[in-house]
Amino acid sequence: MSAMIGQHVRCTPANTLATRSVWPHAASERPTRSRLWLAAAGGNSASSNGEGEGSPLPPPPPPLNPVLSQRSVLISSSAQHSVGLTSTRASNGREADKWAAQYQLQSSSDVGDASSSASSSSNSSGSDSTDASSSGRKEFLLPVMTLSKVKLPTESISLQIFEPRYRMLFKLVNKSTSRRFGVVLSDKSTGMMESVGALCEMTHFITVPERRRLFINARVVGRFSTRHVVSDKPFVAVQAVEHKDERPAELTEQLLAAAQEQRVWETMQEIKELAAKLFVRGQKLGNDIFSLEARRWSPDAAARKAVPTAAGADPTLLALVQAAGLLGDEQTMAERTTEYVCSDALRQVSEDERRERFSFALARKLDLGQEELQQLMYSQDTSERLRVVEEHMIKGRAYLAARSTLRDMF
After folding, report:
1. Which of 97, 147, 276, 366 is deepest in the core (most CB within 10 A)?
2. Calpha distance 193→100 (Å, rounded)
């Protein structure tokens, strides 16, 4: 397992970075992750049903202890609680117009598309959008929405937007070329925002002007890591890079990863057999008891064949809004609804990326807390994530086996 999970964020004199360790294993094995103190995170928290209530901004966090200070950056916040590249509020001047215009011109290949990462280093040519690090990862601008729940790759997100700043955010996203934005876990009580979040692509944009509402449906297509904050007024915008799992370099590592994934799949089959014995009187169950995403990215070719490889837009939100009578007649519905094809569904996925998505698809269905899910977001090791999933599945299999034994005895 990697000794360090998470990236330090380059901070400005208006924000603070802190580090916390949350991991279900021994203290000596716990990786560390970085959290960004952001004044806007206290007022920008939102849930899947809407945004925050605009509570007062929290005070700056207390100083870190000496041990944490050695691994993080501690900079006092400004009196105005504003975060930006300069001492002025970027959203009130030409800097906001500059980054917004630059963001709108970015294509999906510029905003976290894995297919472009291989050529990013060769096309740098001194561009501001290219990361200067040796990894060659491209930097991109990203508007961010803070939530109180972790969203994982392969997940579909539905949002009801009514707060003016977030209506402004998604109108900007709708006009952009990539239609991509970020969702990141935040803690309103402490004003902390995680530095790694979910990279989303909008698939539905529904407007209900008489109620001043937007209904948004999006798909999580990857992860991003914050390099620095560009603006926090009226909403958070960051300079980010794609956050991906490190691919096995040696053939031995690739074989071990494939073997571990196969063990997880076999454990799922054993759980399926026990569930059939306990709950459906021994009738044979198919793989359709597993989630659609788990089957779509599973190591079993037969299970994948029965599921469309291209993940389309989730029609649930559109159906709910229509059932509520918010779209009117057919003509009004056409004027208020915009549907997009997710660009992620149109590209080929490598075997390593398929395995990464499989690990996230399973993690979504486990009974994990928000801290544990966020730790999995920071992890760049597919095998480690599968190991955590396997441990929980083995516990579930043992529980079902015990119930089956007791049933046979009595």
Report:
1. 147
2. 22
